From TrEMBL, chain A:
<feature type="domain" description="G protein gamma">
    <location>
        <begin position="38"/>
        <end position="112"/>
    </location>
</feature>
<dbReference type="Pfam" id="PF00631">
    <property type="entry name" value="G-gamma"/>
</dbReference>
<dbReference type="GO" id="GO:0007186">
    <property type="term" value="P:G protein-coupled receptor signaling pathway"/>
</dbReference>
<dbReference type="InterPro" id="IPR045878">
    <property type="entry name" value="GG1/2"/>
</dbReference>
<feature type="region of interest" description="Disordered">
    <location>
        <begin position="1"/>
        <end position="27"/>
    </location>
</feature>
<keyword id="KW-0472">Membrane</keyword>
<protein>
    <recommendedName>
        <fullName>G protein gamma domain-containing protein</fullName>
    </recommendedName>
</protein>
<keyword id="KW-0175">Coiled coil</keyword>
<feature type="compositionally biased region" description="Basic and acidic residues">
    <location>
        <begin position="1"/>
        <end position="10"/>
    </location>
</feature>
UniProtKB/TrEMBL annotation, chain B:
<dbReference type="GO" id="GO:0005886">
    <property type="term" value="C:plasma membrane"/>
</dbReference>
<dbReference type="InterPro" id="IPR001632">
    <property type="entry name" value="WD40_G-protein_beta-like"/>
</dbReference>
<dbReference type="InterPro" id="IPR020472">
    <property type="entry name" value="WD40_PAC1"/>
</dbReference>
<keyword id="KW-0677">Repeat</keyword>
<dbReference type="InterPro" id="IPR001680">
    <property type="entry name" value="WD40_rpt"/>
</dbReference>
<dbReference type="Pfam" id="PF25391">
    <property type="entry name" value="WD40_Gbeta"/>
</dbReference>
<dbReference type="InterPro" id="IPR015943">
    <property type="entry name" value="WD40/YVTN_repeat-like_dom_sf"/>
</dbReference>
<feature type="repeat" description="WD">
    <location>
        <begin position="244"/>
        <end position="285"/>
    </location>
</feature>
<feature type="repeat" description="WD">
    <location>
        <begin position="339"/>
        <end position="370"/>
    </location>
</feature>
């Protein structure tokens, strides 16, 4: 996948090639490629600078991490969680379907009650 | 402008970028007044307390003849699709352990798979750099194989991860070794948007994983070999919304926290981290205790949260499957040491839609279902 700058370079190099001897054309093309690649890289860096400066400005008004930590704790509370030994309700009876008798089409495999030993 | 002048300009811009990055790093450090574990412990909370027989392996899904690389649950039913080194996708009814489909892939080097939200299609991708979609109700051929319904081509590198946009059977996101993520229209096969690549603020190395927010499906995060996680808005492909620094190695796994405002990540540096999406703060590092027996630090291959977010499941390259108490940042169980545990690396894991079961996939060729089999206290 060529970058936009490389595709532009190929077009420009073709224009110069008709008139000059091969070695001069090649070195001129080398200069075109160098300039365009550099220009494209500088444009990228300039965009990055704008983005980093914007982020620095945002950080002046952003809350410290303690505010987010408080939200994290709050978000885990009050949500029924079938994998926790202690959880808020309501409990859903389908949570324990993994331990209930299940008949499959091919055989009569079933699983013991959840408190059984699985060894 | 001459080449020499341009080179000078380039050097100056590079120096400015480096200086700004350093200032950002320092400013962020000042804003980290606490982490989740310190805040939680200051409130006097204790870790989740599992007894030895609380989390049990209640199913072993056997059938793959090669390493399991990826798995995905349907949002509502008990079905799982898995992808393996054996070049097949298998669709399982996890409750009965039955295989409902075994799909032989055109390209056997598959790395990822995903279930469509309605459970009627599955997608996969890998070293063929394409994402193949199969409709499960399709008529199978003489050999029992389902024909591919759609092949999404355009990536210039391997497909590391694919996920359907929640509640949308027609849109899917892929991440790739070509350093980009792509949003696809599955019905037309067209790329809707490309995230990264030619545009600045894209990843600068292979993208290995992605996770879409369930509370705001316009937002997704991607983890990369460039050690960063980046946040993207589906509506704005031109640049990443934010870049999250912290890991010291490839970010192999990312997963949104259930509230959709935080996300967890797992890396080759052996740690998991919790980041705040909006502020960019690194809220917690989950680091293993150093083990004298470890020649190398085990890497994190996969990460998932329980439905409340209180538990974080992390699969490691040495076969461990740690259950972290997300708030206290302590390991409260290791599924890798329980009875009937896997015999190899955990490569992938995921929670069922209702959060009642965890499925793990391993290099030992099996998948296992884990659920809570103890006495539950409901308050």
């Amino acid at each position: 996948m060529g970058t936009r700058s490389e595709r532009a370079v190929d077009g420009e190099a073709a224009v110069g090639e008709d008139q000059a001897p091969p070695s001069e054309a090649a070195s001129r093309r080398g200069v075109f490629i160098g300039k365009h690649r550099l220009a494209a890289a500088i444009a990228c860096l300039d965009q990055e600078i704008v983005s980093l400066q914007k982020e620095l400005t945002e950080l002046e008004t952003i809350e410290p991490s303690s505010a987010s930590c408080k939200e994290v704790i709050a978000s885990t509370e009050g949500k029924p969680d079938p994998l926790l030994p202690v959880t808020t309700g309501p409990e859903n009876s389908s949570w324990d379907r993994w331990f209930q008798r299940v008949r499959s089409n091919r055989n009569n495999r079933w699983w013991a009650h959840k408190t059984s030993d699985f060894s | 402008m001459s080449v020499a002048e341009l080179k000078e300009k380039h050097a100056a811009a590079t120096a400015t970028v480096n200086s700004l990055r350093e200032r950002l790093k320092q400013r962020r450090q000042l804003l980290l007044d606490t982490d989740v574990a310190t805040y939680t412990k200051n409130q006097g909370r204790s870790p989740v307390n599992f007894s030895a027989t609380d989390l049990v392996c209640c199913r072993t899904l056997q059938g793959h003849t090669g390493k399991v690389y990826a798995l995905d649950w349907t949002p509502e039913k008990n079905w799982i699709v898995s992808a393996s080194q054996d070049g097949r996708l298998i669709v399982w009814n996890a409750l009965t352990s039955q295989k409902t489909h075994a799909i032989k892939l055109l390209c056997p080097w598959v790395m990822t798979c995903a279930f469509a939200p309605n459970g009627q299609s599955v997608a996969c991708g890998g070293l063929d750099s394409a994402c193949s979609v199969f409709t499960l109700s399709s008529q199978s051929d003489r050999d029992g194989n389902i024909p591919v319904s759609r092949i999404l081509t355009g990536h210039k590198g391997y497909i590391s991860c694919c996920q359907y946009v929640p509640d949308q059977e027609t849109r899917l996101i892929t991440s790739s070794g070509d350093q980009t993520c792509v949003l696809w229209d599955v019905t037309t096969g067209q790329r809707i948007s490309i995230f990264g690549g030619e545009f600045p603020s894209g990843h600068t190395a292979d993208v290995l994983s992605l996770s879409i927010s369930s509370t705001n499906p316009n937002m997704f995060v991607s983890g990369s070999c460039d050690s960063t996680v980046r946040l993207w808005d589906l509506r704005i492909a031109s640049r990443a919304v934010r870049t999250y620094h912290g890991h010291d190695g490839d970010v192999n796994a990312v997963r949104f926290f259930p509230d959709g405002l935080r996300f967890g990540s797992g890396s080759d540096d052996g740690t998991c981290r919790l980041f705040d999406m909006r502020t960019g703060h690194q809220l917690q590092v989950y680091a293993r205790q150093p083990d004298r027996n470890d020649d190398e630090i085990p890497t994190v291959t996969s990460v998932a949260f329980s439905i409340s977010g209180r538990l974080m499941f992390a699969g490691y390259s040495n076969g461990d499957c740690y259950v972290w108490d997300t708030l206290v940042a302590e390991v409260v169980q290791n599924l890798g040491t329980l009875q009937n545990s896997h015999e190899g690396r955990i490569s992938c894991l995921g929670l069922s839609g209702d959060g009642s079961a965890l499925c793990t996939g391993s290099y030992d060729k099996n998948l296992k279902i884990w659920a809570f089999g103890g006495q539950r206290k409901v308050i």
